[in-house]
From TrEMBL:
GO terms for cellular component: cytoplasm
Organism: Methylocella silvestris (strain DSM 15510 / CIP 108128 / LMG 27833 / NCIMB 13906 / BL2)
Keyword Zinc: no
Pfam families from the UniProt entry: cobW (PF02492), CobW_C (PF07683)
Protein name according to UniProt: Cobalamin biosynthesis protein CobW
PANTHER family per record: COBW DOMAIN-CONTAINING PROTEIN, COBW-RELATED
Keywords of this entry: Chaperone, Hydrolase, Nucleotide-binding
Length: 349
């Protein structure tokens, strides 16, 4: 074995999980933690508009044998923009664990572009010790079938075939596509919400965007075998030229196209009617994502609320802790121009 391949073998593999807001990244990682065949995994979680919802959901993995020290949350914006300040120290912290992790899983925020993060693995300090095992793009199949990431995905895919340099002015679509363009594996999630025809159409749309032969695997609730997700051996940091991005010509990128707000949620009596209200707010204000925790009067447990577009789910996730303030808080994410005052008023009413 030559020096290069033995050095590569000794590096710790890292898997980057990307995917648009609400695609199912946290759900997939939770499943992976519960079914990782004893592998010592460490996690880096990055959220946009964070109130620690994903962290809280994944901390539930304490009972799944994942050490709390092995979860690092990066809440200050997008990791791809804060590599030196946030990402490097997070990696150092995980590598200092005794014993060190066997595999690091990084959940990017739903608005992150994965390529700058892969580039960070080319930094000497990281390159010497880690390699990108693979970039996994999780797609919200139901949303894609409704064309929520492009004005008309089929039309665009056809235009793109005719002209690969087609201009984009839809930031949602650019983020979605950048995630696909960087992927080594695509998980088409939420197949339970799609008809067979929708699934076939979305697969064709995704294939039209993918620049290389990349496998697309369907899933429900992110239930994918760890053997499929981990061990792709892509060494993506050595393959950056093949991962085109809409932002390749930009010295830096920002997320000015999107914004988030944190809203205090009132104590409620009836989850179903509150969820109905949230769905109407999401629809009226073009909200992309709402998630957080709410206090239900008389209930010992807090209510976890999750909305993707106007589709909502809620469940009681854990009892309020002794001495913990029963304060409801929701993060609301949308494209720039969200009417924060109206949303707050409608929510706090
Ligand atoms: N019906 C259905 N719902 C799903 C599936 N996978 C995830 N969900 C739900 O979709 C919502 C978003 O899932 P998450 O796993 O939080 O998505 P995410 O990509 O981590 O979201 P962000 O971190 O906010 O970008 C939650 O309400 C999940 O319960 C699925 O396969 N089918």
């Amino acid at each position: 074995m030559n020096d290069l391949s033995s050095a590569r073998l000794s590096r710790i593999p890292a898997t980057i999980i990307t995917g648009f807001l609400g695609a199912g990244k946290t759900t997939l990682i939770r499943h992976l933690l519960a079914h990782n065949a004893g592998r010592r995994l460490a996690l880096i979680i990055n959220e946009f508009g964070d109130i620690g919802v994903d962290r809280d959901i994944l901390r539930g993995c304490d009972d799944l044998g994942c050490d709390a020290d092995a979860i690092v949350e990066l809440a200050n914006g997008c990791i791809c923009c804060t590599v030196a300040d946030d990402f490097l120290p997070a990696i150092e912290r995980l590598l200092a664990l005794d014993p060190p992790p066997e595999h690091i899983v990084i959940e990017t925020s739903g608005l992150a572009l994965p390529k700058p993060l892969v580039k960070a693995f080319d930094w000497p300090q990281i390159r010497a010790r880690l390699t990108v095992d693979g970039v996994i793009a999780v797609v919200d199949g139901a949303a894609a079938a409704e064309g929520r990431f492009a004005d008309d995905p089929l039309k665009l895919a056809r235009q793109r075939e005719a002209d690969p340099s087609i201009a984009h002015d839809n930031p949602l679509e650019e983020v979605f596509e950048d995630q696909l363009l960087c992927a080594d594996l695509v998980i088409l999630n939420k197949t339970d919400l799609m008809s067979a025809e929708d699934e076939a159409r979305v697969r064709a749309d995704i294939t039209a965007v993918l620049p290389r032969a990349v496998r697309i695997v369907g899933s429900e609730q992110g239930r994918i075998d760890a053997k499929i997700l981990l061990g792709l051996n892509a060494a993506a940091e050595d393959d950056l030229l093949n991962r085109r991005s809409h932002h390749d010509d930009e010295a830096d990128h920002d997320h000015d196209d999107f914004e988030s707000l944190i809203v205090e949620a009132p104590t409620i009596d009836d989850p179903a009617s509150f969820i109905g209200r949230l769905a109407r707010i999401a629809e009226a204000h073009d909200v992309l994502r709402i998630k957080g925790f709410v206090d239900v009067r008389g209930k010992p447990m807090r209510l976890l609320v999750q909305g993707v577009g106007a589709r909502f789910k809620h469940s009681f996730d854990r009892p309020w802790a002794l001495g913990e303030a029963r304060e409801g808080r929701l993060v609301v994410i949308g494209e720039k121009g969200l009417n924060a005052a109206a949303i707050r008023q409608a929510l706090e009413r």
